Fold this sequence. Notes:
Layout: H1 9-17, H2 26-30, H3 32-38, H4 43-46, E1 56-63, H5 66-69, E2 84-91, H6 100-105, E3 113-116, E4 123-127, E5 133-140, E6 147-153, H7 160-175, H8 180-186, H9 188-193
Amino acid sequence: MKERRNPTEAQTVRRVRSKPVGPKDPRARNDAYWALRQQGYSDAFARRAFRDMLPRFYRETMALSGEYIDDIDPDELLFVPQMNTELKTLAVVVRPELTDEVAATAAPRATEYTIWSEMTPGLGVRVRPSGRRSYVVMFRIAGTKKQGKVTLGSPGNLSLEIAKRLAREVRIEALAGNDPRPMHKRGELLRRIK
């Protein structure tokens, strides 16, 4: 097993600088990923944000009526509530979880994008600007650094469950050192899962 090294001072400085320091940081205002990280969301959730769409901050005025403070004893209040309180909310467009319904109804955008499955590594639905959708699986053949891609089929012809099984077969073949693309073209992978 390869020995793990501690980061150098330069790497540590870069890592500290890469995090937004507060709400005044321009990355938190101009990048959906950093806006979610600033709000306290996890890295895994923030990576699902569409980064080409700016986050929007909305200010709304909320009236504190009797329903919010009637149950509280006035002696226990730490501050005197204002009648109107301004709340700041964040709106970010996030990729949805991959399901059969999402795969069939994902809306096209100006550029091609992919909705990745969180349960099956490498599997996603590619949505083109024309509205055409197709299941794709990314893989890396053992011993190589080059990444490959196989298009499995469209959500109308293929269910998500079958696409997941095909994606596992493609990745198993790649881990074994074989190129799964010719096998997929000949239909061998589809015969294996049936």
